[in-house]
Amino acid sequence: MKDISQNDIQNNVPLVTRKDFQREILVGNSQIGGGIITIIAGPCTVESKTQIFKIAKAVKEAGATMLRGGVFKPLTFPYGDPLGRADADSNGPSRDRKEILSKKELFENAEKRLSYLKEAGEKYGLPVISEILYADSVKMMEKYVDMFQVGYRHMFNMDLIEALSKTEKPILLKRHYGESLRSLLGVAEHYEARGKHNFVFCERGVSVPHTHNVESRAIIDIQAIIALKEYAPSVPVIVDPSHATFKRSYVAGVSRAAIAAGADGLLIEVHPDPENAWVDPLMSLDFNSFAKLVKEIEEIAKILEKK
Ligand code: PEP
Ligand code: MN
């Protein structure tokens, strides 16, 4: 973890590594960081209005503080994009799975799902977050989300960095599984240098030789949580155990470890019927497992004198 030198701190990442800086991250009316544990929960994909309302109710009751829901999905393969499917509330026809939506259709469909996400968040008092893929969707998404998620694939996307630096809304920046903390701090400095200060880091695992096996995924880098707190103490760190482990039975244990190691929160996929989730069925938690996990996190938070 010694990949950041004194020279880097002085010349390359002076702003993000400031020690005496109070960084205020307000998502809606809730704060991230500052001794508060943020639990962001929701489905990989907003499948319908009914689905997202059901999830919002359940995760709120369990103690989540924010609602997540994907609309633009960065899929590994082009087929089966969930936006090509009929809304689960309607019985309309689904697209042929190999038919690619035009960008206009994609945006219209995403906007409809974002409106469900926002309504569900408002109804249950949960600020909402969704992933951005296209720089020209900032204006549209801004009407609905309280926070933007930048996925690991887009960590260095300069169009997104430029566009998101102009928004007031906070950003959750995922570290790519193959990138060092030095690179992550560099990306953060790109935002800082453009006057954008309200971002949080998201650790979603690193790649090791075995993670190239199709059955396996990234390994949550517990040390990274501690190192980021040392290098950039003002930036909250959220951990995503779902996309790192890609395995339901690993999610709770890794979540507990992350909070115990000092993370400021978690980003967890939750679905009423995980096996049948449109995207990421292998690691979504059902409502009971999620509620049990939140209780455990609350106990760990108490020991750490966090709320
Ligand atoms: C997600 O959060 O749904 C997602 C696709 O994340 P990642 O960028 O970590 O793969
Ligand atoms: Mn997912």
What does this molecule look like?
The protein has 307 residues and is α/β, with parallel strands linked by helices. The chain has one domain: TIM Barrel (Alpha-Beta Barrel). It has helices at residues 6-12, 49-62, 103-124, 138-142, 158-165, 181-193, 222-231, 241-245, 248-260, 287-303; strands at residues 25-27, 30-32, 38-42, 66-68, 128-132, 147-150, 171-174, 199-203, 237-239, 265-269. It has an eight-stranded parallel barrel, surrounded by four helices. Strand 8, helix 7 and strand 9 form a beta-alpha-beta unit. The protein is globular and about 55 Å long. Manganese (II) ion is lined by residues 44, 243, 269, 279-280. GO terms for molecular function: transferase activity. Pfam families: DAHP_synth_1. Keywords: Transferase. Residues 31-79, 111-301 form the DAHP synthetase I/KDSA domain.
Strand count, sense and barrel status of the largest sheet are: 8 strands, parallel, barrel
E-strand count: 10
What gyration radius follows from the Cα positions, in whole Å?
18 Å
CATH architecture: Alpha-Beta Barrel
Distance between the termini: 29 Å
Bound molecules: phosphoenolpyruvate, manganese (II) ion
Poorly predicted sequence stretches spanning 5 or more consecutive residues: none
Q: Major sheet: order of its strands?
A: 3-4-5-6-7-8-9-10
Give the overall shape. globular
| Secondary-structure element string | HEEEHEHEHEHEHEHEHHEH
> What is the CATH topology assignment?
TIM Barrel
CATH superfamily: Aldolase class I
CATH class: Alpha Beta
Instruction: Give the total of domains.
Output: 1
Helix count? 10
Proportion in helices: 25-40%
Average of per-residue pLDDT values: 92
